[in-house]
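Changelog-linked ticket: phenylalanine example.
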Amino acid sequence: MHDIFEKAQQTQTAIDADTPVNAEALEVFRIQYLGTKGILKSLMGEMANVPNERKRDYGQLMNALKQAAESKYQTLKEAFEEQEQGHDRQAIDLTAPGEPVPLGSRHPIAVTMNRIVEIFSRMGFSVVDGPEIEDDWHNFTAMNTPEDHPARDMQDTFYVVDAPGMLLRTHTSPVQARVMENRQPPIRIIAPGRVYRNETISTRSHCQFHQVEGLYVDEGVSFADLKQTLYYFAKEMFGTTKIRLRPSFFPFTEPSAEMDIWLGTDSEKNYRLTKGTGWLEILGCGMVDPDVLEMCGIDAKKYSGFAFGMGIERQALRLYEIGDIRLLFENDVRFLKQFTPAM
Ligand code: PHE
């Protein structure tokens, strides 16, 4: 008699401990405990052998067992069914059309800059970067620009109020100094980037614009190398074979020149862009002043070099036939989205 109670008790423990992990195991569980030939049925069958005064206890025990087994079975059955449906729900319909992702576009200045970089890369120039917040030494002194030069004036240059001797670079030329200080020739670099000038003469002028600097220093570099390099550039960039070099002055080059490309005056746009002359000035250049080489730690008796600096904005106007420079800075998406999509 005692045995029957004990057996029922053990069954209870077994049910609690048995947790099927999938639908098949659950079916085994069902047959084992709840089936017509299952354990619970056979335990029920023992009722006849239980003395009358304990029949009630045994009956209660049987009910508890049955409930435990049934509720476990039911709960797990639902869980497994849900799992299966979940799998179905996750299935992806590969034939459904995709959602369009709107593409941005590169800014015409960035496109123009990349094109310039690409052309000079082909000639073996490598790209270097320099800080936009520069010190006086690199921006002016090392570039042979004397203390009393008007470019140093507060009217022309943004100085950092809290940091004496620091300023927003007025050209990309300080990158020349930075490279020469750290490397010996052969040096063949271009440095694209933003520059700043305090030009408040009219509301139309911009205090920030873009330049690409170029520097080539080696033994025996001549003005002919400079001319040929820039000629190749003009041809690749604008498809023009007509350039002219006009004598000019920069403190850090000697001799110095400005380069124009021929656009002609056939169209109204070109007439306007060239102010009726047919020539568009695109860069300043020259042979690096030996004093600059020496100041930057390069032996000027052994080496010579050329440098050039060009504005990007004007070239972008020319390349895309944009009539007004202000369009480049207004951030109007209707204008900007007309250019090459981002890659
Ligand atoms: N830094 C000059 C400018 O901003 C351009 C330049 C660069 C001229 C290099 C000569 C050589 O106008």
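Closing comment: Example verified and attached. The longest strand covers residues 208-218. The first helix runs from residue 2 to 17.
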